[in-house]
Amino acid sequence: MTEARIFDTTLRDGEQSPRTSFSYEDKREIAAILDDMGTHVIEAGFPVNSDAEFEAVRDITEASSVTVCGLARVVEKDIEAALDAGVDLVHTFVSTSDVQLQDSMHATRQEALDSAIESVERVKEAGVECMFSPMDATRTDEDFLVDVIEGVSEAGTDWINIPDTCGVATPRRFYDLIEMVDAETEARIDVHTHDDFGLASANAISGYEAGAAQAQVSVNGIGERAGNAAYEEVVMALESLYDVETGIDTTRITELSAIIEEKSGIDVPANKPVVGANAFSHESGIHAAGVIENSDTFEPGVMTPEMVGAKRQLVLGKHTGQHSVRERLVDAGYDPTDEHVREVTRRVKDYGAEKKRVTMEELTRFAEDIGVPESQEGVRA
Q: Residue ranges of the Pyruvate carboxyltransferase domain (predicted)?
């Protein structure tokens, strides 16, 4: 893997999540953070969609230091709207699978191919970088897909995006597909994966392994239906597991995730990789004791909470052991004896067994009930 660029589509595909809408101000704020973090491409939206969308895409393009992309169907008004918005990259697409051509586009293969070539030619005529996507590529007849790739390549497209539009690819099959596409074109390869079977991030990584230079991702994985490959998962896998320097400031990932959670209205599951509340949390006594001694014992090691701007937590509950309780008591400014720790641990377990959350307020109450003395050193930072 020699190159691994990140194309963020939170503001476009992410906003297509059911019941999600970003305001103009939301888009500007999110784009500014993505820009500051060093994201390589920001797909700011679909300029032809509305006047407000056009203005947001235009203004984000003017304000950003990274490449800003606008989406366009292979129709003249879409292409012209994207060009008028001044984007650095026009991303144009057309369905290529028979099911979408017949029952959605109501077009023939030849019509799809002709419109794809004409759209790429128009973008290149304007002197703008072009990306072309054969929508639903993973369900497209392979011979026709090759025809399309050859056609848009001859027309001069800079990028070919291979989208797993309906999330049906597996990592092995996707690898083979990207490898085949790479052999058919001189254009750079980009991939776009969906999470219908929970494989979006794995498929994106597989795309890189097969020769793709870039993957499209969204923060928290939001997007159509089950969502997209997650920005945070793909970036951290590249950085931590593949030793690829993406150039992205990963220490702001948790901050970015929280902003998208708030503005999209889509809650981040506690067990969400990298950014979920449980990603660096430990309750089990054995795990917590190991982590207190050396965090690598029960965490990846190659990815730490500090790397993504998060904090490790020792959670109190029915599985908590004495090591965690002692650590939390000392952090809270107490100086417990072994007997104090045993008794507080017993109370924590009993309280947690009733499916109640053991907060610092409860821990303090348990400590005060049995007379745990305060430490002369006070609360530990």
A: 4-254
